[in-house]
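Checklist before submission:
- one chain only
- standard amino acids only
- sequence pasted in full

Submission:
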Amino acid sequence: MAEKGQGFGFGLGKMKELAEAFKKAQQVQEGAKRLQEELEQMEILGESGGGLVKVVVSGNQEPKRVEIAPSALAEGPEVLSDLVTAAMKDAYKKSTETMRERMEELTSGLELPGM
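Returned file contents:
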Protein backbone atom coordinates (compact mmCIF):
# COMPACT_ATOMS: atom_id res chain seq x y z
CA MET A 1 0.00 0.00 0.00
CA ALA A 2 1.21 3.48 -0.81
CA GLU A 3 1.90 5.87 2.00
CA LYS A 4 -0.52 8.71 2.47
CA GLY A 5 0.45 12.09 1.12
CA GLN A 6 2.47 10.87 -1.85
CA GLY A 7 -0.16 11.77 -4.44
CA PHE A 8 0.88 11.27 -8.05
CA GLY A 9 4.51 12.23 -7.57
CA PHE A 10 4.09 15.83 -8.74
CA GLY A 11 5.95 18.01 -6.32
CA LEU A 12 6.59 21.71 -6.81
CA GLY A 13 9.74 20.90 -8.77
CA LYS A 14 7.78 18.77 -11.23
CA MET A 15 5.16 21.48 -11.64
CA LYS A 16 7.90 24.00 -12.39
CA GLU A 17 9.39 21.63 -15.00
CA LEU A 18 5.95 21.14 -16.54
CA ALA A 19 5.32 24.89 -16.68
CA GLU A 20 8.73 25.41 -18.30
CA ALA A 21 7.98 22.68 -20.86
CA PHE A 22 4.67 24.38 -21.75
CA LYS A 23 6.48 27.72 -22.10
CA LYS A 24 9.06 26.18 -24.45
CA ALA A 25 6.32 24.49 -26.47
CA GLN A 26 4.53 27.82 -26.86
CA GLN A 27 7.77 29.48 -28.01
CA VAL A 28 8.32 26.72 -30.58
CA GLN A 29 4.73 27.08 -31.79
CA GLU A 30 5.15 30.84 -32.24
CA GLY A 31 8.48 30.31 -33.96
CA ALA A 32 6.95 27.69 -36.26
CA LYS A 33 4.21 30.13 -37.27
CA ARG A 34 6.80 32.81 -38.11
CA LEU A 35 8.90 30.24 -39.96
CA GLN A 36 5.90 29.16 -42.05
CA GLU A 37 5.30 32.79 -43.04
CA GLU A 38 8.98 33.22 -43.95
CA LEU A 39 9.00 30.00 -45.99
CA GLU A 40 5.97 31.18 -47.95
CA GLN A 41 7.81 34.39 -48.91
CA MET A 42 11.12 32.74 -49.84
CA GLU A 43 12.13 32.15 -53.43
CA ILE A 44 14.39 29.16 -53.94
CA LEU A 45 15.95 28.59 -57.34
CA GLY A 46 16.47 25.20 -58.91
CA GLU A 47 18.11 24.90 -62.29
CA SER A 48 19.36 22.46 -64.87
CA GLY A 49 21.24 22.43 -68.14
CA GLY A 50 23.66 25.06 -66.91
CA GLY A 51 20.82 27.52 -66.36
CA LEU A 52 18.78 26.68 -69.48
CA VAL A 53 15.81 25.90 -67.25
CA LYS A 54 15.13 27.55 -63.90
CA VAL A 55 12.34 26.71 -61.48
CA VAL A 56 11.49 28.93 -58.54
CA VAL A 57 9.58 27.56 -55.56
CA SER A 58 8.74 28.94 -52.15
CA GLY A 59 10.42 27.60 -49.03
CA ASN A 60 7.49 25.23 -48.59
CA GLN A 61 7.75 23.90 -52.16
CA GLU A 62 4.94 25.94 -53.71
CA PRO A 63 5.80 26.49 -57.41
CA LYS A 64 6.21 30.17 -58.26
CA ARG A 65 7.56 30.26 -61.80
CA VAL A 66 9.52 28.48 -64.51
CA GLU A 67 12.03 30.22 -66.77
CA ILE A 68 13.10 28.54 -70.00
CA ALA A 69 15.90 29.96 -72.11
CA PRO A 70 15.00 30.24 -75.81
CA SER A 71 17.96 28.01 -76.69
CA ALA A 72 16.44 25.22 -74.54
CA LEU A 73 13.49 25.04 -76.95
CA ALA A 74 15.84 23.96 -79.71
CA GLU A 75 16.73 20.85 -77.69
CA GLY A 76 13.36 19.29 -78.46
CA PRO A 77 10.43 18.28 -76.27
CA GLU A 78 11.99 15.20 -74.64
CA VAL A 79 15.19 16.98 -73.60
CA LEU A 80 13.22 20.05 -72.49
CA SER A 81 10.95 17.85 -70.39
CA ASP A 82 14.00 16.25 -68.75
CA LEU A 83 15.51 19.70 -68.08
CA VAL A 84 12.30 20.96 -66.47
CA THR A 85 12.04 17.83 -64.32
CA ALA A 86 15.68 18.13 -63.22
CA ALA A 87 15.23 21.81 -62.34
CA MET A 88 12.09 20.98 -60.35
CA LYS A 89 13.94 18.27 -58.43
CA ASP A 90 16.80 20.69 -57.73
CA ALA A 91 14.41 23.34 -56.41
CA TYR A 92 12.55 20.78 -54.31
CA LYS A 93 15.78 19.45 -52.80
CA LYS A 94 17.02 22.96 -51.94
CA SER A 95 13.69 23.98 -50.41
CA THR A 96 13.50 20.81 -48.33
CA GLU A 97 17.06 21.36 -47.07
CA THR A 98 16.22 24.97 -46.24
CA MET A 99 13.08 23.93 -44.35
CA ARG A 100 15.00 21.26 -42.40
CA GLU A 101 17.80 23.67 -41.49
CA ARG A 102 15.34 26.32 -40.33
CA MET A 103 13.42 23.79 -38.22
CA GLU A 104 16.67 22.64 -36.63
CA GLU A 105 17.48 26.27 -35.78
CA LEU A 106 14.01 26.69 -34.29
CA THR A 107 14.25 23.59 -32.11
CA SER A 108 17.95 23.76 -31.20
CA GLY A 109 18.55 23.67 -27.50
CA LEU A 110 15.24 22.00 -26.81
CA GLU A 111 15.09 18.46 -25.59
CA LEU A 112 12.25 17.21 -27.74
CA PRO A 113 11.78 13.46 -28.09
CA GLY A 114 12.08 12.19 -31.64
CA MET A 115 13.76 15.29 -33.07
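Reviewer check: The helical segments are 12-41, 70-73, 77-107.
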